[in-house]
Amino acid sequence: MAKSTRQQVLTDLLQYQNGWRSGDELAADLGVSRETVWKAINALRKAGHHIEGRKSLGYRYAASAVLDADAISFYTHTQMPVTVLASVDSTQVYAKEAVNAGTRTLPFAVLADQQSGAYGRRGRHFYAPASSGLYLSMVLPNAGATLQNVGLLTTGVANAVVDVLAATFPGQNFGLKWVNDVLLNGHKVGGIITEAVLELESTSTAAFIIGIGLNLTTADFPAALTDVAGAIQVGADVDRNLLAARIIDHVTQLYAHYGDGAFLPAYRQRSVTIGKQVTLNLGNERVLGKVLDIADNGGLVLRDVFGTVHTFTSGEVVKVENSH
């Protein structure tokens, strides 16, 4: 599908981010009039892109306060199609429905500026207000059609996301609470959920939908969440398009070889649960004990209060205490 003038102008400005582009240059390169370029610049500004203009120099792309599929696609090194929605109940639900309807080729990614029905593990609501977070679902085909090492997929994605966050916010000490919570200063700033889409005829796994929710600059949380949730950096100027692209790239790279567990040493180093007394929620049952390690399959190695050592591949750590 041919790109619109608006898309072409955006791509051109992104390519020359460190320099200025005159209206004449843009018009000549794109084969359009200067007035058409001017209209495209205005449309981009109206959409939320910060584009500087100087009479003698031309235009220069400064930053973006808005999620933009074209900008994300420009920054990524993958060929993954990207969809950006202004608002949706859940990017996970949207992605699942698209896969089940067979309307999208895999892989693809969908992001939303805000979500009204975002959820994490066990269906728990995730607060996802407009403009201040990154809410992303990636649909990745499962070539092997098996469910092997799913624990490694979730832990691997969590570690890949924190790799990107650590590079984006240097000096911040991110931690990982098994299996998929991203912590900063004792507060949850992000979570990852991995869901399988089954081939109904064969009951094999057709694809994985990886949901990533990050509180980037959110200043205010509902009263029920103020003790547990936090933002990475309130008031920061975060280019969400660049951040989304880096996460898509890192998760795509990780997905190609997550089964080898090469990331586990880094995950263990970031773990806030190893060596701690925890309460593990298994649904109808709770287990108390000390976390000894993260297993090679991504499971939680825990010695319970009776001295028995278990490896859990599912469940949720609901409480972490300092060991005595």
UniProtKB/TrEMBL annotation:
Recorded superkingdom: Bacteria
Domain BPL/LPL catalytic: start-end pairs: 66-259
One Gene Ontology cellular component: cytoplasm
DNA-binding region range list: 23-42
GO biological process: protein lipoylation; regulation of DNA-templated transcription
EC number annotated for this UniProt entry: 6.3.4.15
Family matches, as InterPro entries: aa-tRNA-synth_II/BPL/LPL, Bifunct_BirA, Biotin_CoA_COase_ligase, BPL_C, BPL_LPL_catalytic, HTH_11, Transcriptional_repressor_C, WH-like_DNA-bd_sf
Record: residues binding biotin: 115, 188
Keywords of the record: ATP-binding, Biotin, DNA-binding, Ligase, Nucleotide-binding, Repressor, Transcription, Transcription regulation
One Pfam family linked to the record: BPL_LplA_LipB
Catalyzed reactions: biotin + L-lysyl-[protein] + ATP = N(6)-biotinyl-L-lysyl-[protein] + AMP + diphosphate + H(+)
PROSITE patterns xrefs: BPL_LPL_CATALYTIC (PS51733)
GO molecular function terms listed in the Swiss-Prot or TrEMBL record: ATP binding; biotin--[biotin carboxyl-carrier protein] ligase activity; DNA binding; transferase activity
Function: Acts both as a biotin--[acetyl-CoA-carboxylase] ligase and a repressor.
Family according to the record: Belongs to the biotin--protein ligase family.
Name used for this protein in its record: Bifunctional ligase/repressor BirA
UniProt source species: Lacticaseibacillus sharpeae JCM 1186 = DSM 20505
Gene that encodes the chain: birA
